[in-house]
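A student in our group prepared the protein record below, which I am reviewing. Thanks in advance; the entry in question is below.
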Amino acid sequence: MDQTILDKLMDLDYKLTGINIKLSKIEESLGIVETGCSKMEDHITFVENVYNVVRAPLTFVKNQVEYISGTNSKKELPSIKK
């Protein structure tokens, strides 16, 4: 086989090895990001559930404070829409 072709093939092999290493690092990083996103999604769900439970009492307290201060709006706190 011609030496220049062999050199080019070895160069391509070297570059492909480098690309595979970089791809493996990207896949590893993607796994870490997916785990983080899953944890954040769990946290958001928790916060939404807590807010839905305390929304009515907070609305009551807000309305009482507004009534005492003279800025009576009687508006409920917004609900969370998914």
